[in-house]
Amino acid sequence: MNARIFRGDVRLDAIPADDRGIAYGDGLFETLRVHRGDVPWWRDHWLRLQSGANRLGFPLLDAALVREEVASLFADGGDGVLKLLVTRGAGQRGYAPPTDPVPTWVVSRHAVPAAPAQGLRLHACATRLAAQPVLAGIKHCNRLEQVLARAEVERAGTDEGLVLDSAGNVIGATAANLFAFIDGRWVTPTIVDCGIAGVCRARLLPALGAVERLLSPADVESADAVFICNAVRGILTVARLGQRAWAPHPAIAAAKIELSRLHPSFAVGSA
């Protein structure tokens, strides 16, 4: 990993101990797929970051400065994953935010994760997501629910987890959104009280003519096909959830073709 840390426009050697991101998870992050040194969905991620900063009530960064550092990180024109993390910055002990925060931000370069050799096995997670409409949709830094759910997945020896909200509705996977093919149409869970409104999800909704609605675990289990998606890995086919197994389905193949038109990293047949 290659990382660079800043407070405002000043480069730092490390994140200071008084940073509110460390103390309270008071921040946001985005993970973006980089293709040959370019970030095709940059604007989508930046708009979500901007929305999150507005909700949390701290100023966003200078976009030109961030893009300059990103370009430097990927100056070799390579592929990879960019993580952009922004916190409210320094603060005294206590929850009250500073009146004039100077955000801390980190850009880091990571390798592209390996593509799975086969369809994913999902574990039905017992850990549920609490309802908090103020934070729903944005990618804030408090991810303890996802950490606990992912630990369940690891213990179960599966690839990913199906995560529900406190009312028992399907929200998605631990690190991805979910689409189910029901009655000839793609359906994805609504993001109102919890969950992340993923960038890849937002791109696929119109491309697939998909609809948003409440989904129960039974809806997912009875679907003709299921996939999960995110902006780093694209579309990943789900092959099993508990005792329910799915064979390869042409609707998923067609969805992957649509995604390949939206982002060059997800060209059909590429890793």
Protein described:
The mean pLDDT is 96. The protein is of the alpha+beta class and 271 residues long. The strands form 2 sheets. Strands 6, 7, 8, 9, 10, 11, 12, 13 and 14 form a 9-stranded mixed sheet that branches. Strands 2-1-5-4-3 form a 5-stranded antiparallel sheet. It is built from 7 helices and 14 strands. The two termini are 20 Å apart. It folds into 2 domains: 2-110, D-amino Acid Aminotransferase, Chain A, domain 1, CATH 3.30.470.10; 120-266, D-amino Acid Aminotransferase, Chain A, domain 2 (Alpha-Beta Barrel), CATH 3.20.10. It has helices at residues 20-24, 42-56, 63-73, 144-156, 199-207, 217-222, 250-262, and strands at residues 2-7, 10-12, 27-34, 80-87, 104-110, 120-124, 160-164, 170-173, 177-182, 185-189, 211-213, 225-230, 234-241, 244-245.
- Using the coordinates above, name the CATH class of the largest domain: Alpha Beta
Rg for CA atoms: 19 Å
Uncertain runs with pLDDT below 50, 5 residues or more?
none
Number of strands: 14
> Would you tell me the structural class of the helices and strands?
alpha+beta
Q: If you consult CATH, what is the topology of the largest domain?
A: D-amino Acid Aminotransferase, Chain A, domain 2
What best-fitting shape do the alpha-carbon axes yield?
globular
CA(first)-CA(last) distance? 20 Å
Main sheet summary: 9 strands, mixed
Q: State the fourth-level CATH superfamily of the largest domain.
A: D-amino Acid Aminotransferase, subunit A, domain 2
